[in-house]
Amino acid sequence: MDTFKISDLAKEFDITTRSIRFYEDEGLLQPERKGTMRIYHRRDKVRLKLILRGKRLGFALAEIRELFELYDTHQGDSQLTKMLKIIDEKEAVLKRQLEDINTLLEDLSVARRRCEDALGHKKAS
C-alpha cells in the first residue's frame, strides 16, 4: 500500500506542511498516526489533490467538506440530489466567470492593439 509522509505530499503539491495540517484540522484529511508521525494513504493524497483543485476553482472549504461528506456516506437519492445541486450551482458560477474572463481578455486585446497602433504612429512620425 502506498503511504506518504507529510513532507512528501507538501513537496509533490508545492504547499506547506502547515497547509496540510490545516486541512487535517478542518476534518478534510484523516492520516494514520504512529506516535507523532502522520502517515498518509492514497485516499488522503487523492483528497488533497481534490481540495487544492476545488480551491483553485473557487470552492470554499465548507463546500469541499460537504461534497466529501456526501461522497463518503451511503448515497441515497436525497444526498445525490443535493450533490447535483451543489455541482450545478458551482458550474453556473464558473460559466459566468468564464464569460467574464473571455470578455475581459477581448477588452485587453483591443486595448493592446490601440496602444501598439499609437506607438506605431509615433515611431512613423
From TrEMBL:
Pfam families, A to Z: MerR_1 (PF13411)
Classification via PANTHER family = HTH-TYPE TRANSCRIPTIONAL REGULATOR YFMP, REDOX-CYCLING DRUG-SENSING TRANSCRIPTIONAL ACTIVATOR SOXR
Q: Which keywords appear in this protein's UniProt record, sorted alphabetically?
A: Coiled coil, DNA-binding
Annotated GO molecular function terms are: DNA binding; DNA-binding transcription factor activity
**Protein name (database record):** DNA-binding transcriptional regulator, MerR family
Q: Where is the signal peptide?
A: none
Domain (HTH merR-type) spans 3-70
Keyword Coiled coil part of the UniProt annotation? yes
Q: Which InterPro entries does the UniProt record give?
A: DNA-bd_dom_put_sf, MerR-type_HTH_dom, MerR_fam
Give the matching Gene3D superfamilies.
Answer: 1.10.1660.10
Coiled-coil region? 87-114
Extract the SMART domains matched here: HTH_MERR
